[in-house]
Amino acid sequence: MGRAFELARRGPQGSNPQVGAVLLAPDGQPLAEGWHQGAGTAHAEVVALAAAQADGRNALGATAVVSLEPCNHTGRTGPCSQALVKAGVRRVVYAVADPNPSAAGGAEQLRQAGIEVVGDVLAAQGRQLLQAWLAGFQPVRPYVILKIAQSLDARVAAADGTSRWITGAAARVHAHGIRAEVDAIVVGIGTVLADNPALTARTADGALAARQPERIVVGRREVPASAAVRGTGGALMRLPTHDPAEVLDRLAARGHRQVLVEGGPTLASAFLQAGVVDELHCYLAPLLLGAGTSAVSNLGIATLAQAQRWQISSTHLLDPDLLLIANPLKEKSCLPE
Ligand SMILES: NC(=O)c1ccc[n+]([C@@H]2O[C@H](COP(=O)([O-])OP(=O)(O)OC[C@H]3O[C@@H](n4cnc5c(N)ncnc54)[C@H](OP(=O)(O)O)[C@@H]3O)[C@@H](O)[C@H]2O)c1
């Protein structure tokens, strides 16, 4: 495998992985070797098989040692798994499993053809070699906007649970514009049960916007059969978890890049406490409730010095309300502790 790594390094770094392959005869003697020379050219295993053939050597019963799992994908070149089967290779040893969803499955294909397959050999070294290429397959955490519509005294619902509408029409039109831009709207099941929102993006005249975000409901309780989130709009997905990181992993895996968390306070607090909110949209309505549901609950902060500090990036008067847009303050606060 060490030799396969050396060969891999001869290939160019680019959109394709650097891969090396060594073919060993049944007695363990080297038969041939090859490496991938970049996008559009033959893969390392195929280069090694061709080199053996050009030398008049037979790969029947050989062992192929490859730094990356042989692909199972017909792109500009044919699947390597098939080429290895056709050549009569008996055993395949590889370092790193192929993370590319369209190319993975080569090992399984080989096993089904009766070939002995050994994976994860010197895998850490292999991953080190392929670091830059593998990074392209890591799902990126979506950008998270948290929306809160609150009274001047930071209540999102009155003492009897009523919350519609704390903000006025202009703020709601603005919020619908944001909904139309994001990939998903995320709410807790408590909000679905209390407010029965449709979670659609609508234009100022109430019509459905052309693009509808997915509707994500977080929590263990079921979404009622009659819930408005089941109506016309984006696809509905239930995530029976309380872990914001898990929610974001699932959304990243679905290719979502920007999501809007609309509360309620339990879900909002969990996202804030986990430090995964990138932008806060606080619609501040000029009314006081005195009692009722607080916008945010426990954030695990015991003393002022531990406060989460935010930086206001813009303010917008959405008559009669005020929208504050803020981002987490990254630098250390200059306030005395
Ligand atoms: N003005 C606004 O901006 C606004 C927006 C939304 C809601 N609201 C108001 O907020 C109130 C509802 O508040 P809420 O806090 O119950 O709503 P929520 O945050 O939407 O839902 C809370 C529920 O979600 C589940 N959950 C998800 N993540 C959780 C976590 N990390 N920890 C614990 N539980 C988690 C739990 O249900 P399970 O036990 O089933 O898992 C929990 O009971 C309503 O009065 C509504 O009108 C106001």
What does this structure look like?
An 8-stranded mixed β-sheet has the order 10-9-8-11-6-12-15-14. The protein has 2 domains: 2-135, Cytidine Deaminase, domain 2 (3-Layer(aba) Sandwich); 143-328, Dihydrofolate Reductase, subunit A. With 337 residues, the protein is of the alpha/beta class. α3 runs parallel beside α4. The two termini are 56 Å apart. The chain has helices at 2-8, 44-54, 80-87, 106-112, 123-129, 131-135, 169-181, 189-195, 244-253, 265-273, and strands at 20-24, 30-35, 63-68, 91-96, 116-118, 143-151, 155-157, 184-188, 214-218, 236-239, 258-261, 279-285, 293-294, 310-318, 321-328. The protein has 10 helices and 15 strands. 37% of the residues are buried. NADP nicotinamide-adenine-dinucleotide phosphate binds at residues 148-149, 156-157, 161, 163, 166, 187-191, 194-195, 218-221, 242, 262-267, 270, 293.
Form type: elongated
- Helical percent range? 10-25%
Domain count: the total is 2
Which ligands, by name, code or SMILES, are bound? NADP nicotinamide-adenine-dinucleotide phosphate
Order of helices and strands: HEEHEHEHEHHEEHEHEEHEHEEEE
Return residue spans where pLDDT drops below 50 for at least 5 consecutive residues: none
CATH fold annotation of the largest domain: Dihydrofolate Reductase, subunit A
How far apart lie the N and C ends?
56 Å
SS-derived structural category: alpha/beta
Number of strands: 15
CATH architecture verdict of the largest domain:
3-Layer(aba) Sandwich
